[in-house]
Amino acid sequence: MKYSKLFGKTSKTDPKDEVSVNAKLLMRGGFIRKEVAGVYNFLPLGLIVLTKIANIVREEMNNAGGQEILLTALQNKSNWQKTGRWDSFDALFKVESRYEAEYALGPTHEEVLVPLVKQLISSYKDLPLSLYQIQTKFRDEPRAKSGILRGREFLMKDLYSFHSDEGDFDKYYKVMKKTYREVFKRCGLDAIETKAGGGSFSKFSHEYQVIAEAGEDEIIYCPGGDFSENVEITEVKEGKECDLGHGPLKKVKVIEVGNIFPLKTRFSEAFDLTFKDKNGKDQLVVMGCYGIGISRLMGTIVEVHHDERGIIWPESVAPFQVHLVGLDLENPDVKDHAEKVYAELQKEKIEVLFDDRENTSAGEKFADCDLIGIPYRVVISKKTEDKLEIKKRSEKEIKFITLPELIKITASN
Ligand code: ATP
Ligand code: MG
Question: For the whole model, what pTM was predicted?
């Protein structure tokens, strides 16, 4: 991609009405634009990152036996009445049709999926079943000041599992714990598995919490990694010595990037979702649900990986691997060299953003590199001659390398 053609440009100044770091940097970097409070458009750079995150999640859900589906955003009101959530789900957007019908605008999908599964399964042989989607959710959130950390419209992965008994559910819950750890690790985040309350569904759930000042939650945790509970449930106090001798427990602010939840038979009862067991007897299906905020994850990565100059994307989710900066492009030899390197990198399938602008200063181009946050900055100028000047976004050191060396470094990503 040539920067001169890219839809969405960088900006030197912070947007006026944003307070969060993620919104400021993502808007200045040309990744997103605000529509209204809590609702953002994704520009090409932003969509590439969002899609990379979604694909990591997708791969890991598939590895855990999940089958991908896509459910409706407009949902049947009567199913929401059946579960009692038409009136009790505070953040529910209700949409009125011209034709005397009302819909829920999906904030979550039990009310759609459970009746759907009921149509298609009947026997113990159909279980276990694990279904997920990556889809836009709508919630009328009271606070929408955290950029894409808390949207009124946002992208979520929601997986629902269906089991013949608690024992089978417990086994899958463990599989999902492992899967979740893998997802967040691959996204460059250290997410702390945290015990939390189960709300109206069950005694407990688990949240995946990333330490960040911007977080709206707080946890008490052991830096040794063997204990973490959400402060809303826990009776444990900060400063208590860890049982395993890792020192005092700490209280920190965190962002919840995902959670996993036993649903027991809460929704199978509401919709009479049963199966015939081996003896031909009807039994209620046992369920679990497992969410990841995909767009929140993107915002969290920015909150964690940035400095005063801009974003520092982990390679796994970066919009491009190489930010190729052409300087002195009015010189035909330099321009020719830069175009050749750009073409060669593309041929090698290395993701490259080529800053091909003429009459833009080196300082301005470097500032944009730091703001956009692509892992490798590669400069071609009069001074570099037939070499390439390379610098990692996360490091200070500059090196001179050849094109084959650059291909070797970046091809593995
Ligand atoms: P929170 O406590 O932050 O409101 P939640 O408990 O309502 O989250 P779930 O309904 O379980 O969250 O949704 C699953 C995941 O979706 C959350 O772990 C979070 O990562 C993400 N998420 C929830 N609400 C939002 C939102 N308004 N904007 C962006 N992501 C969200
Ligand atoms: Mg919520």
Answer: 0.97
Nearest to 48 by CA among 64, 67, 26, 63: 26
How remote is the CA of residue 293 from the centroid of ligand 1, in Å? 6
Q: Is 24 in the pocket of ligand 1 (CB under 6 A)?
A: no
Separation CA 135–CA 54 (nearest Å): 10
| 206 contacts 257 by C-beta, under 8 angstroms | no
Give residue 413's pLDDT: 61
Q: What are the φ/ψ torsions at residue 369 (nearest 5 degrees)?
A: -60, -45
- The answer on pLDDT for 259 being more than 90 is yes
Closest CA to 156 of 139, 175, 176: 139
Per-residue pLDDT reduced to its tens digit, 271-321: 999 999 999 999 999 999 999 999 999 999 999 999 999 999 999 999 999
Q: So what's the pLDDT on residue 200?
A: 72
Distance in angstroms (rounded) separating the CA atoms of residues 117 and 303: 38
CB 322 within 8 A of CB 351: yes
Q: Which residues contact 118 (CB under 8 A, 6 or more apart)?
A: 271, 272, 273
Pocket lining: 259 vs ligand 1, CB cutoff 6 Å: yes
Instruction: Report which of 157, 84, 160, 172 is spatially closest to residue 116, judged by C-alpha positions.
Output: 160
In terms of CATH, what superfamily is 322-411? Anticodon-binding domain (3.40.50.800)
Evaluate if residue 8 carries a pLDDT over 80: yes
- Residue 203 above 90 pLDDT? no
C-alpha of 294 from chain center: 3
Residue length, the chain? 413
Q: Where are the domains of the chain?
A: 3-307, 322-411
> In which residue are the tokens 């309350």 written?
197
The protein residue with its alpha carbon nearest to ligand 1, atom 2, reads 256
Q: Which residues contact 382 (CB under 8 A, 6 or more apart)?
A: 327, 328, 331, 334
300 lines ligand 1 (CB under 6 A): no
- pLDDT tens column, 265-283: 999 999 999 999 999 999 9
Domains 3-307 and 322-411 share a fold: no
What is the dotted CATH code of the domain comprising 3-307?
A: 3.30.930.10
* pLDDT class of 201 with cuts at 50, 70, 90: confident
